[in-house]
């Protein structure tokens, strides 16, 4: 059976597809910061209706990957926006606090997840081969899995939901900051966080995680 765009049953599937494609394109850097996201052009490019594209764009706004501008449609957020510093500050407060709870409450199964997700992250290439510095999708998944595993020992669903909401927008800032600012050794940063966590050294682990976020935020303030 061939679905028509007007079918109400097909619309959510089309919207989810377009959302995923636009999300990935924004995160890859296919759209520059501040670039207009024009529904008519996107509808034509993706072969869907305006309604489908608008649904996808509204969802991107909710994720922090697009802005809805008064009387001007949609656009990729600006890199200089204060919200990114606010986001980094929020993560530097929330996630180290959640990590402290994980270290206090986490069991052996949690330790095993932290160790396993770090092992995968450390052994996954960060960049696509021959893609000119494009972040590997597999590495991005491993990166998220490690950071989330650090907090799962807290057993606090609200904190984990907060992490999930902040992650996508933070992923955009991380990609923008890549290659900017002082040289970083992300492999060493993650290793030190893992070691302090598994050593149950809450003060060191929390400080290292906060510093991890502050380095990304600092890179965004550097001139391109």
Automatic annotation (TrEMBL):
<keyword id="KW-0804">Transcription</keyword>
<dbReference type="GO" id="GO:0003700">
    <property type="term" value="F:DNA-binding transcription factor activity"/>
</dbReference>
<dbReference type="InterPro" id="IPR011711">
    <property type="entry name" value="GntR_C"/>
</dbReference>
<keyword id="KW-0238">DNA-binding</keyword>
<feature type="domain" description="HTH gntR-type">
    <location>
        <begin position="12"/>
        <end position="79"/>
    </location>
</feature>
<keyword id="KW-0805">Transcription regulation</keyword>
<dbReference type="InterPro" id="IPR000524">
    <property type="entry name" value="Tscrpt_reg_HTH_GntR"/>
</dbReference>
<dbReference type="InterPro" id="IPR008920">
    <property type="entry name" value="TF_FadR/GntR_C"/>
</dbReference>
<dbReference type="InterPro" id="IPR036390">
    <property type="entry name" value="WH_DNA-bd_sf"/>
</dbReference>
<protein>
    <submittedName>
        <fullName>DNA-binding GntR family transcriptional regulator</fullName>
    </submittedName>
</protein>
<dbReference type="Pfam" id="PF07729">
    <property type="entry name" value="FCD"/>
</dbReference>
<dbReference type="GO" id="GO:0003677">
    <property type="term" value="F:DNA binding"/>
</dbReference>
<dbReference type="Pfam" id="PF00392">
    <property type="entry name" value="GntR"/>
</dbReference>
<dbReference type="InterPro" id="IPR036388">
    <property type="entry name" value="WH-like_DNA-bd_sf"/>
</dbReference>
